[in-house]
Amino acid sequence: MPEGEFKIGIIQMKCGPDVLENTGRAISFIREAAEKGANVICLQELFRSRYFCVSEDHSSFALSEPVPGPGTGELSRVASECGVALVAPIFEKRAPGLYHNSAAVFDADGSLLGLYRKMHIPDDPLYYEKFYFAPGDLGYKVFQTAFGRIGVLICWDQWYPEASRLTAMKGADVIFYPTAIAWHPKEKALWGASQRESWMTIQRSHAIANGIFTASPNRTGIESGPEGELEFWGSSFVCDPYGRITAQADVEKETILIADVSRKLIDEARTHWPFMRDRRTDTYDGITERYLD
Fold this sequence. Notes:
Distance between the termini: 52 Å
CATH class: Alpha Beta
Number of domains: 1
Largest sheet: 6 strands, mixed
Oligomer: single chain
């Protein structure tokens, strides 16, 4: 590929109750994405299991593992074998009683470049993440891979322009948003279309405002808990610095999306829409306040 360009792959898959089976299927998708030319590949949020946060269940902590651990070790080997950089979301056990919703980032030689820990933790019906995860404490991260500079934010992080701005300011060519977002079936008829549209619009806006690419792999399928079920809406997509969607999956089908990332296009967008140049950094003191009365 021309200098300053690389291909990304994002994987949209269904998850069953068996961790080993989910991991094996994810690895098969990684290999397939690499065969299709992807240089940097990202899996969906908490891909090794069903979305267990539909209930507050202490037994679900058994799904966690330390880093490094068996799961990340296997993914490191796959990254090395395929010669790809890999973003692998994990349920991280940092210490007894301390857990994070994290993503491990591997380079093309299998080396662990580092971790991102989800900063914004939701607490809504069927999304009881505060029961499981401590907020991230590593800050907003950018990782220099063999192919380009990538940022990672996770699901609920996607609604916060501050997170995307700070990640972009650290030099990301693309921000990956591994995601697990769904409809409550009883709300779908009334709110489903607007919820999905809002989800896509906010991430397209991050791409435009920061002059970068964004890529959002979401899970698909229906997953149930004791309090109800969620219908994950898939629709994984990639957009460019102008907010144009360059690849998109449908709601239900397991999919591998491949898309190009071009630093030349980043430079063009930031030159024609010079939002970074015209930022009034001297006027933003209040942004660290909870609210301005």
